[in-house]
UniProtKB/TrEMBL annotation:
This is Uncharacterized protein. SUPFAM superfamilies: P-loop containing nucleoside triphosphate hydrolases (SSF52540). Gene3D superfamilies: P-loop containing nucleotide triphosphate hydrolases (3.40.50.300). It comes from the Bacteria.
Length: 170
């Protein structure tokens, strides 16, 4: 499951986990996710990255670690493992997944959710990171549609979105 920042990926992963499903929020795996420069070398993100820094760096997944997660043996009785996240190189790794679902939200919803974020993930709360996220919005969903991903409306309440996701795989 993927989507733009603020689409509900981590929230849905937590909701699915609490309901007994095998769901992983990929952003929480430091062996998988990192900021990288144009050569692919990992870099440390500054506390408040500006527009220039964001333009010169990408949030990427480590392909080997992603393969480990995809191929990990699921617990007995688990039919679906939900891997929930977004990375700038995800389209390059799309063939690793059996199904790709894009959580789609409109720009006003994205802005509202990012500015209201509390706690851990601060991406989208500063002017530069919010601008960076909004600039990627339209192209993100279009690219995944061209790739054949299922696109679903993620502006609905959490329980409704979760039920729609589960219906796609049962």
């Amino acid at each position: 499951m993927t989507g733009v920042s603020g689409s509900g990926k981590s929230t849905l992963a937590t909701h699915l986990q609490r309901a007994g499903h095998d769901a992983v929020s990929l952003d929480g795996d430091p062996a998988l996710c990192t900021w990288a420069d144009h050569t692919g070398q990992p870099v440390t993100r500054p506390p408040l990255p500006d527009a220039r820094w964001l333009a010169e760096h990408r949030w990427i997944w480590n392909a080997d670690r992603l393969r480990q997660l995809v191929n990990a043996t699921a617990p007995d009785g688990v039919r679906v493992r939900w891997l929930c996240g977004r990375a700038d190189n995800a389209l390059d790794l799309a063939d690793l997944f059996d199904l790709i679902v894009v959580l789609h939200i409109d720009e006003p919803t994205m802005r509202k959710r990012l500015l209201a974020r509390a706690g851990g993930n601060d991406y989208g709360r500063s002017e530069d990171t919010l601008g960076h996220a909004l600039a990627q919005h339209a192209a993100f969903t279009s690219a995944w549609r061209r790739r054949g991903a299922a696109v679903m409306d993620a502006t609905a309440p959490l329980e409704v979105v979760a039920a729609q996701l589960l219906r796609m795989t049962w």
